[in-house]
Here is the input.
Amino acid sequence: MATDKKPVQPLLTGDRTIPPEGAKMITIYIMGRQYRVPETLTVMKAVEYAGYQYVRGCGCRGGICGACATYYRFVGDYRLRAGLACQTVVGPEMIIAQLPFFPANRPDYDLDGMKGDLHAELRSLYPEVFKCIGCGTCTRTCPMDIDVMDYIALMKRGDLKGAAKKSFDCVMCGLCASRCPAQISQFTAAMFVRRLVGKYVLPRAEHLKKRVEEVVSGRYAKMLKGLMDMKPEDVKRLYVEREREPDMAEPGAWTPKDREHL
Amino acid sequence: MSGYTEELKGLIGKVESTRPARVEKAKRGEHFPSLTIKEREEWLRRYHPDYKSEGRARVGVGPNRGGVFPEEVARLLESRSMLDPDGINLGTSDYATDVLVIGAGGAGTAAALAVAASGLDVLVSTKLRHGDSNTVMAEGGMQAADQECDSPYFHYLDVIGGGHFTNSPPLVSALTNDAPLIIHWLEEMGMMFDKLPDGRMKVRHGGGTSRKRMHSAGDMTGAEIMRVLRDEARNRADRIKVLEFSPAVELLTDKSGAVCGAVLYNLETKEYYVVKAKAVVMATGGFGRLHIQGFPTTNHYGATADGVVMAYRAGVELQDMDSTQYHPTGAIYPEQNVGLLITEKVRGLGAQILNSEGTEFCFALEPRDVESACIIRECVDAGHGVVTPTARVGVWLDSPMIDMLHGTGTVRKELPAKYIQFKRYNIDISKEPMLVYPTLHYQNGGVRIDEFGGTSLKGFFAAGEVTGGVHGKNRLMGNSLLDVLVFGRRAGIAASECAKGLSETPAPTLEHVKKFHGELKKAGIKDPVKGPMLLPAYAPDHVKKRQWG
Here is the structure.
């Protein structure tokens, strides 16, 4: 540990891992082939440390894009485990296989044309959802800790809003679908349900509707033109003098002094 | 059990020993003195990576010849094509389309939807999967002036002031004017915005905003936007065709220099495809994965500046490409979280920045660029950085203060995603501080465009992080998601109009590449690298040395 006062030049190596001297090395098996890598790395960084350059199976590297669905086991342990390669830490004797792609059922649909019985729309588009056998493998497999089986149950029951909320953290990695004995593509059905709910169930923003009309009428184009034509020092003055909406004000409650430019 | 090593735990002891007094001071409303304007300027000049003379290079060719850029950028601007321009058969095309969109993140997908809506066919080329982009990673939200106390007028002032008045005014005008239209468009497509029970948008302040106009969808706003856009694009498969793992590697130009297609490269079969198009939209995103000056990055795997390189070679001028946004607080520990963005909200809630002695050395809420400079100074110059087991250096971000200031449970409630991301590695950020260092976050500059996404080349449009001018030299939080959608749509519409004006697709050539190769030779640039880069290489040196090909 550097606790002395000597200047320290940070080791800036981008995303490449440079293990310190004496780092503990462990054995892992990438698609069955043995490699030695430093401990504490994620699966993704361990695979790169071994010398692979990703084409598939790598996206945001931050746990949100769902590109790096991974299955793994430990030697001598029967349990099959799942995770995201960018979020899962390697362990000794880990056997790793990433899913480069998984085929999902995703029928096309016309969202604007769905105004009647939303539950019936779900039934016609994703009949297999109603064949869930309740085994719970999806829930146990989800790397985002979503109770997948439960949102499928909510869908079956017609609680689409509940299903939309419950599935909201989904990164669409496809691990649930890859293990489903009822052959459901849970994550695409959930995407459909969330959009249905977003469009037809959640209340619309009335203030937005009004503002859109004002924008379309050209009201702001004129004001903005005025700002663009203004001398830079005048824009700077307006910037410095602008009022700030109080932090604690409820949305829609506060009114500024300058109402001419609303 | 803690995820910190014994050595680091020892240093955390120093943080804990100074904490009670610091919390008491914070409760009294006292904070570390802010730097004066003069000090800010000096700190930036001496410590901000943008102001360093090392790590910069003058570009010897192309429209910005003589300009000084980060070395990593300059090297790619002076790169040679992956293709032998004489070795490609342009006589026949593998794909012919009305509009080609290069890149399938937020901007590219918005553009593709706009083209489809205008009744034309669009081919989308993307290096990774549809949606793999920085868009998907944006957490905080998106600005739009749709509340009664707000208007595009005030949004404009915030954007241009935040950019230190270096932005291009017509682009700021377009951005702020269209913002409510974009929110409405997304609402119509079924995006699940955070709303109050009566449907009113839940809006918050962001750094530098005069009104609360930050719209969100949990702490995964960008991911929600991207999956909705992608889903809708899939519904429009009659018009929109997406080629994944097939990045563009070169534009095609006609004899007048107008852009009329691109050469794509299938990353898996290593085969090239010739695409003829009446108009092209470039939407390849930013450059975080170039790791300017070795910095880690918050960007996705594909952020390698490909679009800038291709456009530059075809003769399009760049603006503000020397300007990079470093976010002051990127995680440096544990190794798995390196580069992970620690949102500004942590400091907004009262967490202080401390050195290895557990001592405060700067105000935690300086502007982003200034805060970054302060942290770099403390580590590099003062030698008060904390060194991790993987030899990274950083400072403490004292998150346990948050619960002490606002009540137990605040961290878990206000920062759920961050809490989980550290908890996974046995670090409870409501009880232990985080280690942070500035991280490469955003490409401020890029291809020069007009307010319709048009460039200096006929038939060529661009949108999103690949462009410059919208944010000037400094971008405010919540305006990049807006940028990709406003200009993605505008570029899609403009490209459609351009395509409708052409009765047939012009004959494509690679003349601009031959000319550029000639310029490289004339400028005496020896052994230029091949560009665009396409994929970063993270193999360690001992492996690289033994790799063939």
Q: What stands out?
A: Chain A touches chain B through 103 residues (CB under 8 Å). The radius of gyration of chain A is 26 Å. Residues 102-232 of chain A form a domain with the Fumarate Reductase Iron-sulfur Protein; Chain B, domain 2 fold (CATH 1.10.1060). Chain A has two domains: 25-98, 102-232.
